[in-house]
Amino acid sequence: xxxxxxxxxxxxxxxxxxxxxxxxxxxxxxxxxxxxxxxxxxxxxxxxxxxxxxxxxxxxxxxxxxxxxxxxxxxxxxxxxxxxxxxxxxxxxxxxxxxxxxxxxxxxxxxxxxxxxxxxxxxxxxxxxxxxxxxxxxxxxxxxxxxxxxxxxxxxxxxxxxxxxxxxxxxxxxxxxxxxxxxxxxxxxxxxxxxxxxxxxxxxxxxxxxxxxxxxxxxxxxxxxxxxxxxxxxxxxxxxxxxxxxxxxxxxxxxxxxxxxxxxxxxxxxxxxxxxxxxxxxxxxxxxxxxxxxxxxxxxxxxxxxxxxxxxxxxxxxxxxxxxxxxxxxxxxxxxxxxxxxxxxxxxxxxxxxxxxxxxxxxxxxxxxxxxxxxxxxxxxxxxxxxxxxxxxxxxxxxxxxxxxxxxxxxxxxxxxxxxxxxxxxxxxxxxxxxxxxxxxxxxxxxxxxxxxxxxxxxxxxxxxxxxxxxxxxxxxxxxxxxxx
Amino acid sequence: xxxxxxxxxxxxxxxxxxxxxxxxxxxxxxxxxxxxxxxxxxxxxxxxxxxxxxxxxxxxxxxxxxxxxxxxxxxxxxxxxxxxxxxxxxxxxxxxxxxxxxxxxxxxxxxxxxxxxxxxxxxxxxxxxxxxxxxxxxxxxxxxxxxxxxxxxxxxxxxxxxxxxxxxxxxxxxxxxxxxxxxxxxxxxxxxxxxxxxxxxxxxxxxxxxxx
Lengths: 485, 212
Description:
The structure holds two protein chains of two kinds. Chain A is globular and about 70 Å long. In chain A, 42% of the residues lie in helices and 17% in strands. In chain A, the strands form five sheets. Chain A has a four-stranded mixed beta sheet with strand order 2-1-14-15, with helices on one face. The relative contact order of chain A is 0.20. The two termini of chain A are 32 Å apart. Chain A has helices at residues 41-47, 55-59, 67-81, 88-113, 115-119, 131-137, 139-160, 180-208, 212-219, 264-267, 304-310, 317-330, 340-360, 411-414, 416-432, 438-450, and strands at 18-24, 30-36, 169-170, 173-174, 228-233, 245-249, 255-260, 268-271, 280-283, 300-301, 379-386, 389-397, 403-409, 468-473, 479-484. Chain A is of the alpha+beta class. In chain A, helix 12 (317-330) packs antiparallel against helix 13. Among the domains of chain A are: 85-224 and 339-372, Cytochrome-c3 Hydrogenase, chain B; 225-336, no CATH class. Chain B has nine helices and six strands; from the N terminus they run E-E-H-E-H-E-E-H-H-H-H-H-E-H-H. Chain B has helices at residues 27-34, 52-59, 84-90, 102-113, 116-124, 134-145, 151-154, 193-196, 199-211, and strands spanning 3-4, 12-17, 43-48, 64-71, 79-83, 173-180. Chain B has a six-stranded mixed beta sheet with strand order 1-3-2-4-6-5. In chain B, 53% of the residues are buried. Chains A and B meet through helix 1, helix 4, helix 6, helix 7 and helix 8 of A and strand 3, helix 2, strand 4, helix 3 and helix 4 of B.
């Protein structure tokens, strides 16, 4: 095989988009695929020297997609840095807020972002193969989703203090208590969330899962990735989005780690490649063996599929029922089908809605003590499950509470290796079928979208898009064409 | 910062978009923060690092919205106000893998309002909903079988500002106030001199837009 010359088209962070580079072999097949995504190192350096308590408001600006996750991960890191024990009322507020965010984000992906893959046939004409096509096919469902998400957004605003970019979480707790009147208002919105979550399960099984196209994707050998899985679990080994122990399970289902989530950063190292700015995390104990899966590889994945792989059960009844159907379908654990991410997202959405339902009725929600005592500042690590996977915020504060060190490891960074591998496998499969344009783009996008990667870090220019582009190079490195939309 | 002036439910929103910790990218936020408290009756002033569907959903229910943002499409410091769709048209087809532009998201939501007549029927009798797609009939049936949670029930808990009263989704008229900025602004606070010099003029443009 001729040696490839790989050149990088730098992705500026401000473009906020991903680029996939495909290199063809001399027969026209796909030899390699590289996913380039933004990185956050500049942001971390920018934060050094600032006051620690600013971080929940600053870090949520780096991501227009999941500010809620950064807000609470940051607050948790500061809780730890100040040695604070947060009051029960504050914990319940945070968890209600956070489960509502997970529900809302997963719902958006299931219908609008991943909807074209999940709800439309692959042979749907490209001009209809988008969210508008989904709405044309399912107008009633689409409208109801918008309504219920509007209610969920109201929950986030009522607790978070703002419609956009929450301000409620502080080191040691939250800014204000929830009174009974507000609790009742929250409960009405949460009720609609739980109803829709249950209905979505029925809809999925009756209308989505039986589709032969989806069945083919779920069973596709190109869309199976044998990598390890990471996620937070509670004491019963059920997923917990807000808090818990970190669990890592191998691609063969063996427990690799179960313990304090703050130790997670000690378990991973990051590998650099010359063709991208993003670092590839891998499990230190396995070492780096390239972008390859298998039991000997250190690569791992995070997010809904990974969280269900590290879980032994779900935390709520309806989610548990759906989890059992999910496991019955695949027949073995851990589930390695990339497109199972969508189904896993549904299972988690149900748990989040049910959890929010329980939390809004929790007697501690209206407690008046919402901030704990702070001790002298030091080092703190906040770990949380963003919708897209495990999110670490690590801060070191000096004696005056100023940041000396900031380290963020975000979900899409964890998944950078697996995403690239999935994209390559799907591109190779599409190339074998001889269509390097529309089918390739569809397949690549579908593999990419299954992870729901967040490339929206930092900023949005006008016109505010998040494009994915694919560039195709010949075996001699000559640029052939760019496919994008 | 988030302010609302006038009545408790604002009719107009001014959204400073961008990242205030990313130098000139934060010019929209800088303009929003410079707006005086008497900027207008019934006007909400927001900051947002969000776009696409994430922002569009929050704009439902307003009549008019002005998005203030930086753009490298203009020379640094130059200002232009025009309908958002015209700005986005400059970028060609923008349907991306993950998200969509703000006007695309609003278009998506607007499409839903076109279903209002059939949805009204659905409120009173879910069985009577005329399906727009062969699968849609089954969706309604599925929802009924699984507990009867039709649109009317889910709609009981909806936000007034979300504009979903009576299942009508009110889509705002959205304009963009674009301020030219250099490409690739670095992390940091504060604006470059040419962009900073444009802030006061942008504030005046906002006043003019509010009074138009």
